[in-house]
Amino acid sequence: MSVRRVMGIETELGITSTQVDTQGRPLAPQWLSGQVVRAYATAAGEGASLPVGSGWDYADETPLRDARGYEIARELAHVTQLTDVEDPTIANTVLSNGARLYVDHAHPEYSSPEVTSPREAVRYDRAGELVARRAVEHLAKEGREVRLYKNNVDGKGASYGTHENYLVPRTVPFDRLARQLIPFLVARPVVAGAGRVGLGQASERPGFQLSQRADYLEAEIGLETTLRRPIVNTRDEPHATPHLHRRLHVIVGDATMADFTTLLAVGSLSAVLRLIETHPDAVPALDLADPVEAVKVVSHDPTLRATVLTADGRRLTGPDLLEAYLEAVERAAASGHEAWEPDEDTDEVLTRWRQVLDALRRDPAECAQQVEWVAKHQLLQRYRDRNGAAWDDARLVAMDIQWHDLDPARGLAQKLRVAGRLERLVPDDAVERAVTEPPQDTRAWFRGECVRRYGADVRAASWDSVTLVDERGRPRRVQVPEPTAASRERVGELLARHTTTASLLTELASEDV
Amino acid sequence: MAGSSQEHIRRRDDGAPEPQAPTPPPAAPQAQSAERDEALDSLLDEIDGVLESNATEFVHGFVQKGGQ
User: Closest chain A residue to B3 measured between Cα atoms?
Assistant: First the structure.
């Protein structure tokens, strides 16, 4: 328990291409993104992904249901909120690692499979980078040139999301969860920011900031993810047994290239959630006077000294806010509470969070191997020193974008990884395995293994179902509402007994998965 | 862990005036900073060849549609 819970990371990738259509116009990003998804499916081959165009099953999706207890009317929703409508022009596939790879609006998106620890979240997030690389390499072999960027801004006003998902018990009241989480989310970029050149949604002012997303957050709490983006998103779409679970959908985070940063982002948040679940009265009372403003104040100050005002009149820095949460988490971890029973994942997250926070308080430069914004800031600052470049110099803006390039020959963060200047937490071979092998301890195992074993007879999948064809070719939907059900332990032998979906369905008809 | 927590509570409450505007961080020890610069220089030299040769055009062309 403790930092262990069902979680996953979805990443929309920036995309560019020098290709043009027959009239010399740039190609539409939606079309290009479709090419990426198709290219991966082609390169990966049968058994590694479903055929592109296989269905995504929207039956259990509820993008307009709000955790505050109501559902907005479809006619009042912005078209981008209707994520439960199949668009036949959009490419979609499900991978044998349990992930979904598809086109979301105008970006390729890799949604990782459900995992149960921060370290696994890092591993499957890195696997997503390899998936994207394979797609680009395959396109290059066909003479097509596409570049993918694991970042969240174009510096001209557009932002695209990296969303984290955490399974939370339905018993935790949502309004308290949101209130107790907001000050933490305001401060989390101190340890979890990817860094950004430019201040303001369209980089109106020169400068460097901690977070890619801060300037695009415009509300405290809300349902939208594309307009008036909130610090806490209220979409109530659990993708899990609804009366037991919530899925906390976190839209404020950055895509990260540094293993440590990803681990701390999801690990610290999962720990704070456990604190909110188990010790509600011990969560520090840090309500902020203006959280939306505070997000920007914290993000805009790489010295970590800027202060934000609490509702009760205190002025605290981003590290102060994180310190208060970490201390409460450390006390909870030592409390003997059954949900905080010691485990390696929790030890690792709390130890590293403490080390990084203490070091950041002494001098952020000490964390250049761990914290992505520090690593990026140092490299760019040194470039400025050598070349006399101001923060709005195109060369620095270009380096910021190129930091996130997923081509290892070009990506600056990847260059730092190879040079040993960004600490690695997951070995390459373990990441490689995660490209095709699903996590064993969640339903992602069932989803991924169905893709691998029965690919041609899988009609559709979703987070909580897989649709297989029976002996007459009729689609039959197998529901898996519990995220930790249908794990390898639970259904490994069942799948091993069946080489066809027809015989599997026959046995399933007589028992529940 | 308790020890370090105490230290931070003390540090936060030590009455030092909170700066209203960001101020530069304390300078790192000279030797450490020089060593860091040297390492970054060699890295910058190494990546020099992959940096966009026409940064202005590259930045101008990096336009994305909004996302979630």
Answer: A327
